[in-house]
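dumping this here before i forget
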Amino acid sequence: MDSKLGANNKVADIEVVIDDDVAMSKNEQNNKKIEVVGIYDQFVSTTLANFHAGYFRISLGLSAQVWLWKTLVQFTKDSHDHGLHPVLMMLPSTASTLLWSLALVVLITLSILYALRCLHHFDKVKEEYVHHIGVNYLFAPWMSCLLLLQTSPILVVPSGTFYQQITWWMLVAPIVLLDIKMYGQWFIKGKARVLAKVANPASQLSVIANFIAAKASFFMGWSEIALCFFAMGVAHYLVLFVTLYQRHPGSNGVSPKLRPVFSLFVATPSMASLAWSTITGSFDITSKMFFFLSMFLFISLVCRPTLFKKSMRKFSVAWWSFSFPLTLLALASIGYAQEVKHGAAKSLALSLSIMSMIVSLALTLFTTLKVNNLFLTSNNNKSQS
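structure:
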């Protein structure tokens, strides 16, 4: 009997140990699930809450940089002037392909984050849609897509096919809808939405989007549609440019931290110059006039470094506002240098191109090092757009 009781006690002890292991494993699994849920909740409450359309400045700057590199590589192949060849030959032909891939990955990542933001913080998305600064950056992802599509190293969509037309309409339709929303409210809405009060330097993104759409339309072979987009862009650029110059009292400006957006004054005439040269097939007088205007505005901003003093104290995504306009100016200078074939023009184009590459590289490094601060630091969405 004693031996049987001892055996039963051992069996009971063994069973208790097994139950403890199962309980511990279940507790560990529950703890891991709680940790995963906690991490996702933190991601939703911090990263997605702080994220906004202004982050698409990054993809826009990288997409323009791809365009610049591809233009320089092509210029090296086509040019018979050996004056710039020693410098341009230093650019590896595969660099533009790698940069295009990086820009595509960044654009996809930002698009996924913004889609999740729409899912979890749709109220903030609606606030951004009606905000006089934030709404302008809703053009940025579509502009980036159009630029990447035109600079693709591979044939993403077969040329001249129905799929190419569908792709073009999918990218241009949001720009048209935003145009109707913004331009319509400027002359239909009441005093709250009058242009003199809501106009700000970021409003030029809507104009630049029309110029990019015009260039993309001509790329598709639709010259009439290209002229339509260019006409809309030029008309509203003239109205917006005069309005911003007048600086009406009581108008909604931008905070000191967002003053890098003033560089868009350079981007608009530069993109107009590039779009018109694409439509006409040459860098004619109209393109030169836009280019000279962009150079004048660039020099005006360079001569006023104190304008950006407060915004440069701490790194923010607003710094990416410098990359896109400078790259467009460099591209316009290349077109001008190819037309006039003068040594000074080529030197200017080379200087602006190198400056643009340095700025984009520096911003990429800063963004990589400060990525936690950009996405996790609590901020006001309206002021950071």
